[in-house]
Design goal:
Length: 106
């Protein structure tokens, strides 16, 4: 669902998805899909620290700040984390128990 969104796995109606930094239409599609399935969406932003392209909104991508604000407004969960965070797997598992998880970097 959405621009540059690819399903990796589905378990019990909850999806793990991956793709690039989302645009607004990507978030809209992810939110609509989750509403239809009655689950939450957690956006896992691996852009840490964000670079100048990430902050610029290049190609319609949302900057980390704009993504976090849009997620809050749409009722989506937002998690910005470093890929080397030792608790990353635990955070992902917790989010996946609640619904869809969308991972992205640039």
């Amino acid at each position: 669902p959405g621009f540059n969104v690819h399903q990796v796995e589905e378990t019990g109606g909850r999806r793990i998805l991956r793709g690039g930094a989302p645009r607004q239409d990507t978030l809209n599609s992810l939110a609509a899909s989750a509403r239809r399935r009655g689950v939450k969406v957690t956006l896992v932003d691996l852009r840490s620290p964000p670079n100048s392209d990430d902050r610029s909104g290049k190609g319609g991508r949302l900057s980390p700040q704009a993504e976090a604000a849009a997620a809050r407004k749409m009722g989506l969960n937002y998690l910005q984390v470093i890929a080397l965070d030792k608790s990353l797997i635990e955070k992902i598992q917790q989010a996946h128990r609640q619904g869809h998880v969308y991972f992205h970097c640039m």
